[in-house]
Write a structure and sequence with these properties.
Largest sheet: 7 strands, mixed
Helix content: 25-40%
Shape: globular
Number of helices: 8
Length: 315
């Protein structure tokens, strides 16, 4: 039976944010919205549109419901429940929440949201209508809202090494790899990417070249972050990544290789006491690394296995 014929076997992807700002005296505030249709107070969220990634959905829905543009950070949690009404009754709706820093905007009442409130986290927890939203808020506030984000990307698909006759360093992206690179070009700005770096391999540079072109910045070439560079001197590779993270000028996007990324992350996690069950590293995937604002301690590591849109899929 197809997905369309059996809504009970369908996942409806959605996304939202714990939208935050620092108010007077650096007091953290988060935004709640009131939806007159349901007469509830909730975190801004909504269903993904066709061809849209979850981070893109989170940013768009936040703008639509609050009027504020958000720069995403670490994952804040996930909420899942069955839809009970409408054409997809019985389907499982899964909402992925990200922390989102408000970087400008203005609220205007609309058909979906008639009121927005900026509240301290403890006030917001009391105001929220749903326990699931409270759990997301509580999980988010366990760590600092403001972190230093590094977007660590594995290069996109580049075809078979065996079928490439020239120097492997020069192996370019395949057609499917270019599609992954185009998706990353859309995805990474949602997390505030403003600086671009790549290991000294053509496929790594090509993976982020479109992003660099859009930003009008060069791709910084990082020999220490190739597989060979990492294995020759792991400490230098880790130090270089931390140096990039410390630099000013927005979030860095760094493209490296599958033989370096898991080991780098494992090292940061071990030094920081962060427990990670596994460290996958698919081609075209992204690790959102959240470091403490004033030290080289890894607070969270969130994995996005693909930058391609999330389809409505059976579960």
């Amino acid at each position: 039976m197809s997905t369309e014929q059996n809504p009970a076997r369908t996942i409806v992807p959605a996304a939202g944010t714990v939208l935050w700002r620092n108010a007077a005296k650096a007091q953290l505030e988060v935004a709640l919205v009131h939806r007159p249709r349901y007469d509830d107070w909730s975190l801004p969220k909504g269903k993904a549109e066709p061809g849209e990634t979850l981070p893109e959905c989170a940013v768009r829905e936040t703008v639509e419901e609050t009027g504020f543009r958000a720069v995403l950070g670490r994952l804040a949690g996930e909420v899942a429940y069955r839809l009970t009404t409408g054409p997809r009754a019985g389907a499982r709706k899964v909402i992925t929440y990200y922390g989102g820093q408000a970087i400008g905007g203005r609220f205007r009442p609309n058909d979906e949201v008639d009121e927005l409130r900026w509240l301290r986290p403890e006030q917001a927890a009391a105001q929220l209508s749903y326990d699931a939203d409270r759990a997301v808020l509580d999980a988010f506030t366990e760590l600092p809202a403001a972190t230093r984000t590094v977007l660590l990307v594995r290069h996109a698909k580049a075809g078979s090494r065996a079928n490439w006759p020239a120097d492997d360093d020069l192996r370019p992206l395949s057609r499917s790899g270019q599609a992954q690179a185009d998706a990353l070009r859309r995805l990474l700005p949602q997390f505030g990417a403003e600086r671009v770096y790549a290991a000294d391999r053509v496929r790594c540079v090509q993976t982020l070249q479109g992003l660099a072109d859009d930003l009008g910045v060069p791709v910084g070439i990082e020999r220490a972050l190739t597989e060979e560079g990492y294995h020759a001197d792991p400490d230098t590779a880790a130090t270089r990544l931390l140096d990039i993270a410390r630099e000013h000028g927005g979030t860095p996007a760094i493209c490296s290789q599958g033989g370096a990324i898991p080991a780098l992350i494992a090292g940061f996690a071990a030094e920081s006491g962060l427990l990670l069950d596994e460290i996958p590293c698919k081609k075209g995937s992204v690790w959102i690394l959240s470091f403490a604002p004033d030290e080289d301690r890894l607070l969270a590591a969130d994995y996005l296995p693909t930058a391609l849109p999330a389809p409505t899929t059976p579960f």
